[in-house]
Amino acid sequence: MLYPEITSITRSFSSDNISEQRKEVLKPLIDFIQAKAINQEEIRLNLICTHNSRRSHLAQIWAQAAAAHFHIPRVYCYSGGTEATAMFPVVADTLRTSGFKIQTLSTGSNPVYAVKYSENQHPVIAFSKTYYNDFNPEGGFAAIMTCSQADGGCPFISGAEKRIAITYEDPKEFDNTPQQAEQYHERSRQIAEEMFFVFSQIKK
């Protein structure tokens, strides 16, 4: 069971809020997860963007929470970038405001966070890394390209069983502006609603 604050946000989600065009974009991911679920195989998703600092972390964490919410077993969500930087602190702030419980495991230029979405589920370990980092799977995963730069810049993802482009606008352009918090929440909510839609379609 997700934390109550997260659950209250998800109650406002509706497939009607997602355009038919976006549903077509999400369909290859639904098909990948469904095929794995039918065969009772592990479902590995590696959410990838350029710096593994914003969108890929939001997608990784919300996807893991969505899998737990819909009781889809054997789902393991990862994230990575074409280069490593750091998870942008506003991402952690945005998730906290949405009800996630976050511990900072280490500080420095690339902090490591433990992000919990449920009392009894293992936290997501969040830090910036390349998509091919040893922390991530070597094979048998779907590479989900969450930004157009990474999608265009990485024509080949080693080990990926499937490559799927599900791109999002970067909230980075609103950094240090009065709209920063609002825009990060808007992007987080869009990603959350789409990840919950994806996992709601999976038949066990």
Secondary structure category: alpha/beta
Report how far the terminal alpha carbons are from each other: 18 Å
| Helical content class | 25-40%
Low-pLDDT parts are: none
For the biggest β-sheet, the strand order reads 2-1-6-7
The mean pLDDT is 96
Q: How many strands, what sense, and barrel or not for the largest sheet?
A: 4 strands, parallel
Percent of residues in β-strands? 15-25%
Order of helices and strands: HHEHEHEEEEHEH
Number of strands: 7
Account of the 3D structure:
With 204 residues, the chain is an alpha/beta fold. The chain has six helices and seven strands, in the order H-H-E-H-E-H-E-E-E-E-H-E-H. The protein has helices at residues 4-10, 20-38, 55-69, 89-97, 148-153, 180-200; strands spanning 43-49, 75-81, 101-106, 112-116, 124-126, 141-145, 160-165. A four-stranded parallel β-sheet has the order 2-1-6-7. It has a three-stranded antiparallel β-sheet with strand order 3-4-5, covered by helices on one side. Strand 6 (141-145), helix 5 and strand 7 (160-165) form a beta-alpha-beta unit. The two termini are 18 Å apart. 38% of the residues are buried.
Topology overview:
Layout: H1 4-10, H2 20-38, E1 43-49, H3 55-69, E2 75-81, H4 89-97, E3 101-106, E4 112-116, E5 124-126, E6 141-145, H5 148-153, E7 160-165, H6 180-200
Parallel strand pairs: 1-2, 1-6, 6-7
Antiparallel strand pairs: 3-4, 4-5
Helix pairs in contact: 3-6, 4-6
Compact overview of the structure:
The chain has 204 residues and is α/β, with parallel strands linked by helices.
